[in-house]
Amino acid sequence: MDCAFRGTSWVPPSPALRLGPSHLLPKLRFSVKLKPSSVRKRVVVSRASGSEEKDSGNGFSAAPSKVFVEETIGAEYGEGFETFRMDGPLKVDVDYLNDKLQECFLQRIRHAMKPDEAFGLIFSWDNVVADTRSLKLDAWRQLACEEGRDISSDSHTQRAILHTAADRVLQKVLCWTEEENELERFKSRLSELYYENLLNLEAPVEGLKEWLDAIYTVGIPTAVVSCLDRRHMLEALERMGLSKYFQAIVSEEDGMESIAHRFLSAAVKLDRKPSKCIVFEDDPRGITAAHNCTMMAVALIGAHPAYELVQADLAVASFSELSVINLRRLFAHKGSSFMDLQKQIIEKSPPKRKLMTDTIF
């Protein structure tokens, strides 16, 4: 089986970029002298939220962050994305990857001896690797405090803040403003506050590190997907002590337009067929995206109650409930589904003996 596709598709995660004060100071426009740590923090937040300064007559313009945007699920009806190779653009979708990412001869031998390595595990960043619920809530509370406004503590408002796009929250839920300029200002500041809080994140979700240790021992490749930029994801993973566990990272730089596209990109980077990948999610939309990609889905109960995650192949309250045996069982009874292409086997019966005239007595 030709494996040229995998060789050209693998993109290993790049090391975190370290910028010294000499690289950062020329782009700052402050009238007061700041400490180096404060300077770095301001520029980190500015670049992470997509709001780098641009020379213009009115100061700078800020691009909205994807953190507070409700992304599409993706991969419906064979929808895919385009990637570029030396011989031109290439359309990548679920069926294409399941066909092209077949195991080579040596891989089949290795996976026969170590079957766990045939899987690929994909972890969503939000509320699976890091507790981003608290980061988002803190950002909204800080913004309300700065603007002299109040945010209701009822469940409807809190749920909308966590799971709805910032535009709709500002216009329909909180009713702060309808003006476009004010909306952009609120969203830009909200992103800055989120990334400021992200710099203080030092602990992963409870039980995740022990689970990753078990996976690392048996050699299952893992990836993490997020809409954050690569550098800040690497720095956050390093602070949480998780850098060595993830062989692939899908971040904002990959240019994926939907949740499912991020999962497909992670499968390519892990060199695993989508149908051999397992997604760890806490959101029903992410579970739907995983199934659209022919992937298994393990739901983490927390941000959503268990009854909203019934479509997952496995739902757990914490990572401590998981074992490698659970992953094997997800594929143990996987057979052909309705309308899957199947080969029709025609049984050929041996030819009957012909009776000749001289054999009849």
From TrEMBL:
Superkingdom: Eukaryota
Record-linked Pfam families: HAD_2
Gene expressing this chain: LOC103702114
Name under which the protein is recorded: 5-amino-6-(5-phospho-D-ribitylamino)uracil phosphatase, chloroplastic isoform X1
Signal peptide coordinates: none
Coiled coil: none
